[in-house]
UniProtKB/TrEMBL annotation:
Cellular compartment(s): Cell membrane
Reported function: Multidrug efflux pump.
Transmembrane segments: 14-34, 54-75, 95-117, 129-150, 162-182, 194-216, 241-266, 286-305, 317-340, 360-381, 390-412, 418-440
GO terms for biological process, alphabetical: monoatomic ion transport
One Pfam family linked to the record: MatE
GO molecular function: antiporter activity; xenobiotic transmembrane transporter activity
Bilayer topology annotation: Multi-pass membrane protein
The keyword Transmembrane belongs to this UniProt entry's keyword annotation: yes
InterPro entries listed in its UniProt record: MATE_fam (IPR002528), MATE_MdtK (IPR050222), MdtK-like (IPR048279)
Family that this chain belongs to: Belongs to the multi antimicrobial extrusion (MATE) (TC 2.A.66.1) family.
Major localisation: membrane
GO CC, any one term: plasma membrane
Classification lineage: Bacteria, Bacillati, Bacillota, Bacilli, Bacillales
Protein name: Probable multidrug resistance protein NorM
């Protein structure tokens, strides 16, 4: 990355960073999309089983990956302040931490998975598919978290096209394995929805291996001597990474877990409703990759400018990113409004399921507007290393306001399952307002060089 002076230069650099991240995130989301989509084509029970499995897996995966994404602002600041020699050590500590996190997840899953699924009182076939799907995908936890650290470093150096290239290789691998393992083609076992879990686990190992090859052999990573020296675990480095990463991880966890909680609460409805809800959430999550990609770009750009002491430039990037997300949210809302039936048909061949999906997608329109403000704003705050208030705001908005509101509406009004979506919309809107207010406060503090008292 290079310093910029004019808004035209900033727009060019913003797009240079953003576009590969967007392609990468869409491709990563497409892995989940094809898992859900192809499982739905196999059968409604498989769609519901993968939906339940995904609802448990996604918040754990994204929340803990968020902790490891603390590497991004740390490396951005090191590069902005010209401390390149410290990058290799920091990334190695991130890999150590990713290994510890992976082992903790595997240990917790061994003891907690069966009780959680039994608590949900699922239909036997759906329960079995969800259990075996999660067991299969768990084989890929270690490489997935390791890749998260490496990718965070790659992106922090502005080399987002490399992340894009790696992910674009992974997508056809995943889709091809899904085809072979879900439907049992060319002599492979016919595993149904469970095959999607196996395919994803193999894909995680592939992208981890490719990313290691890139950072070890290619520039500019080779000059940084990544993984060329052995470094023992450092509790002090863990503390520095966790200080930034834990609030980021919790913020992501609170947002993703509330959607998963809704899916789990919907287990009291029939299998068709569960399947339709998850299909709509899956497509809305794919559209969410737009504000999420802008969020990640802003963390890199604002972190770089802030590390170099160019506060005006950091503020201008924030305005540009949030404005871009708001405009694009209108486009995604139009997609949901006018192409809902076509989208629903991607997930199922059954008319009743398609009709339910289409109705859920109408509510998803309102998600886009709030996400367009809240998510990029969090990216800007991470660039300022202001991460603690954001996760408190997310917890308050999503879990104290959004989820209880949805439960009341779904249980005591005629909205039924749609009530949960109204609750989610309420929580997201409140979260967006509070996060934007926090950003204004942080930027004013930086402008007056006042210490943080939050």
């Amino acid at each position: 990355m290079i310093p910029t002076t004019s808004m035209k230069q900033k727009a060019r650099q913003f797009l240079y960073i953003l576009f590969p991240i967007l392609i990468t995130q869409i491709a990563l989301s497409a892995i989940t999309f094809f898992d859900t989509n192809m499982s739905g084509k196999f059968g409604t029970d498989d769609l519901a089983g993968v939906a339940i499995g995904t609802s448990l897996w996604i918040p754990i995966q994204t929340g803990l990956s968020g902790i490891l994404m603390g590497i991004t602002p740390l490396v951005s600041h090191l590069m902005g302040s010209r401390k390149e020699s410290d990058v290799a050590y920091q990334v190695t500590q991130g890999i150590w931490l990713s290994l510890l996190v992976s082992l903790l997840v595997l240990a917790a899953g061994t003891f907690a998975l069966s009780p959680v699924l039994h608590f949900m009182n699922l239909e036997p076939q759906v329960h079995d598919i969800a259990f075996r799907f999660l067991c299969a995908i768990s084989v890929g936890i270690i490489p997935l978290f390791g890749y998260t650290v490496i990718r965070s470093c790659i992106d922090a150096l502005g080399q987002t096209r490399i992340s894009m290239f790696i992910t674009l290789i992974a997508l056809p691998v995943n889709v091809g394995l899904n085809y072979l393992l879900i439907f049992g083609k060319f002599g492979f076992p016919r595993l149904g929805g469970v095959g999607a879990g196996v395919a994803s686990a193999i894909t995680y190992w592939v992208i981890f291996g490719i990313s290691l090859m890139f950072v070890y052999r290619s520039e500019p990573f080779r000059s940084l001597r990544l993984f060329r020296s052995f470094h023992f675990m450092s509790l002090r480095s863990f503390k520095e990474l966790l200080k930034i990463g834990v609030p980021i991880g919790f913020s992501i966890f609170f947002e993703t877990a509330v959607f998963s909680a809704v899916t789990l609460l919907m287990s009291r409805f029939d299998t068709i409703t569960i399947a339709a809800h998850q299909a709509a959430i899956n497509f809305a999550s794919t559209l969410y990759m737009i504000p999420l990609s802008i969020c990640m770009s802003l963390t890199i750009l604002v972190g770089f400018e802030n590390g170099a002491g160019r506060l005006k430039d950091a503020r201008q990037y924030g305005i540009m990113g949030i404005g871009t997300a708001a405009v694009l949210s209108l486009a995604t809302a139009l997609v949901l409004l006018f192409a809902g039936s076509h989208v629903a048909g991607l997930y199922s061949n059954e008319p009743e399921v398609i009709s339910l999906i289409r109705h859920f997608l109408i509510y998803a329109i309102f998600f886009q507007i709030s996400d367009a403000i809240a998510t990029p704003t969090q990216g800007v705050l991470r660039g300022y290393k202001d991460v603690n208030p954001a996760f408190i705001i997310c917890f308050l908005a999503y879990w104290i306001i959004g989820l209880p509101t949805g439960y009341v509406l779904a249980t005591y009004t005629s909205l039924a399952a749609y009530g949960y979506w109204v609750g989610l919309i309420t929580g997201l809107a409140i979260g967006a307002i509070l996060l934007l207010s926090r950003l204004v406060k942080v930027q004013r503090r930086y402008a007056h060089n006042k210490p943080d008292t939050a």
